[in-house]
Amino acid sequence: MFDFFTRKGKSKSVAKDRLKLVLIHDRANCSTEVLELMRADIIRTISKYMEIDEEALEFKVGTTKSDTSENLVPALFANIPIKSVKRQEVL
């Protein structure tokens, strides 16, 4: 019975994330599918070394000043909360 309410909240969160991806797509002129693949790759790569809070993870596309000119260029900003760093064996 309580799962019913949890799923509704989760659906809302998924819908919100998808809307964010659509907005990012518009700003970066990049398809939503490519952005979702990039997001998954970033999460997978960072997760090899750290335990992260995927629920609080934020990806945003904005603009920043170019290093080579005064023009604004699209930029990916990520806020990735780290729960802990995984111990790596030294080879």
Explained architecture:
It is a single chain. This protein is of the alpha+beta class and 91 residues long. Helix content is 47%, strand content 25%. It has helices spanning 2-28, 32-47; strands at residues 50-52, 58-65, 72-79, 82-85. β2 (58-65) and β3 (72-79) form a beta hairpin. The model is unreliable at 1-7 (pLDDT under 50).
Structural class: alpha+beta
Q: What sequence of helices (H) and strands (E) makes up the elements?
A: HHEEEE
Main β-sheet, spatial strand arrangement: 1-4
Q: Classify the oligomer.
A: single chain
Unreliable stretches (pLDDT < 50, length at least 5) are 1-7
Q: Would you spell out the secondary-structure blueprint of this structure?
A:
Blueprint: H1 2-28, H2 32-47, E1 50-52, E2 58-65, E3 72-79, E4 82-85
Antiparallel strand pairs: 1-4, 2-3
Summarize the structure in short.
Belongs to the MinE family. It holds the Pfam family MinE. The protein is 47% helix and 25% strand.
